[in-house]
């Protein structure tokens, strides 16, 4: 065993909090827990003490939790209240991107709509109108103007529209204009994305395959 | 208090002045007291279309700069007692008057008239800002061409920004046969893009050119197809419900019969 402490014990109003290191080997952790309990055996006698165990970022299976409980049970007055891990930290890159902002109105010729984040427009983009957005652009209406998604270089940004008849589409650094590079105007909703650095159009239902997001559905 | 309506389009040559002259005259024919104001300073036309050019003494700039009272500058129409026009200056340009001055002049006209029709110059610069300054309602004129629709869209955006909540749309110079053959933008497509209320469609009519050259507004001619369309628009401005496609269908039926007989 090294001199580094893997187990920190803190006293609180409710009882004792055991802060267990989340980087070391689990076996080392158990060893030190054993050692600590043996060392402070005097302090752990007397009235019932509530124990809160915090695992940090470590996630344990039930049988490993049981091994910790078994060690603490050797002291008759220790009552384990909880064994907790920190909630998984949100991916920091995702935080600014996932905010979806809804706007209502028509972007007419000569008007520019700018937003950082994902944008949902309830309305049309007319020829001569422009949307510039750092994230995705979803248009519940007709896209007849120009849209630039991922203006800060996000090549995963998409542009979706109920009616896809744009004058120009841009994602990150890629500029594309129909119908030279692709044609559309299908009766179903479509989205534009970058496939190997070139603009591609696909129907909305293909997006789930591309993004592989796990959805949980209710029902059978 | 009268209602001030600006007739605008963005693009030039789509028929703003013709529309202003004909709507003004049509409203006067229906017994309303109407004043038409030409704000196209430097390129005035409304007086020519109305055949009143030789009666001009004072103009809009004279009123703005206090050289005359607004009543002195008003020209009474030669056909209707209740129809007047305020001409633009020909020797100045758009920057010689400010939106505030126009607003004041329009406000001073409102108590004396039922309708004030403001003819707007092409473009979206100072002249446009002058023209919309005194108005409370706007009519946007377009033709079934991409360029005109694009400019109309731009102007609608500017109008919405300047607190015109619901501009009305006139589609001018429609050729039903071209529209049927798909060589011209469809009315429905235009309305879908511009997304404002359609207040009238006017067929392309040679009589309009003839009338403008003779200084007689088309609405005076009962036989012109455009005349019926303008009168219908005037009735809609007065709040009547007039179905839109009446004229189109009639012309369509006639052509169909002609075509059937091998004459079309």
TrEMBL record, chain A:
Domain Septum site-determining protein MinC N-terminal: 7-83
InterPro entries: CAP/MinC_C, MinC, MinC_C_sf, MinC_N_1, Septum_form_inhib_MinC_C
UniProt KW keywords: Cell cycle, Cell division, Septation
Keyword Cell cycle: yes
Alphabetical GO biological process terms: cell morphogenesis; division septum assembly; regulation of cell septum assembly
UniProt xrefs under Pfam families: MinC_C, MinC_N_1
Keyword Disulfide bond: no
Limits of the Septum formation inhibitor MinC C-terminal domain: 104-201
Cited PANTHER family: SEPTUM SITE-DETERMINING PROTEIN MINC (PTHR34108:SF1)
HAMAP family to which the protein is assigned, alphabetical: MinC
Annotated family: Belongs to the MinC family.
Function, as annotated: Cell division inhibitor that blocks the formation of polar Z ring septums. Rapidly oscillates between the poles of the cell to destabilize FtsZ filaments that have formed before they mature into polar Z rings. Prevents FtsZ polymerization.
Protein name: Probable septum site-determining protein MinC
Species for this entry: Cohnella endophytica
From TrEMBL, chain B:
CDD domains registered for this protein in UniProt: MinD
Keywords noted in UniProt: ATP-binding, Cell cycle, Cell division, Nucleotide-binding, Septation
Keyword Ligase carried by entry: no
Keyword Nucleotide-binding in record: yes
GO CC field: cytoplasmic side of plasma membrane; cytosol
Binding site for ATP: 11-18
Pfam family, one: CbiA
GO biological process, one term: negative regulation of cell division
Superkingdom classification of source: Bacteria
Gene Ontology MF: a single term: ATP hydrolysis activity
UniProt similarity note: Belongs to the ParA family. MinD subfamily.
Function according to Swiss-Prot or TrEMBL: ATPase required for the correct placement of the division site. Cell division inhibitors MinC and MinD act in concert to form an inhibitor capable of blocking formation of the polar Z ring septums. Rapidly oscillates between the poles of the cell to destabilize FtsZ filaments that have formed before they mature into polar Z rings.
The name this protein goes by in its record: Septum site-determining protein MinD
Designated gene of the protein: minD
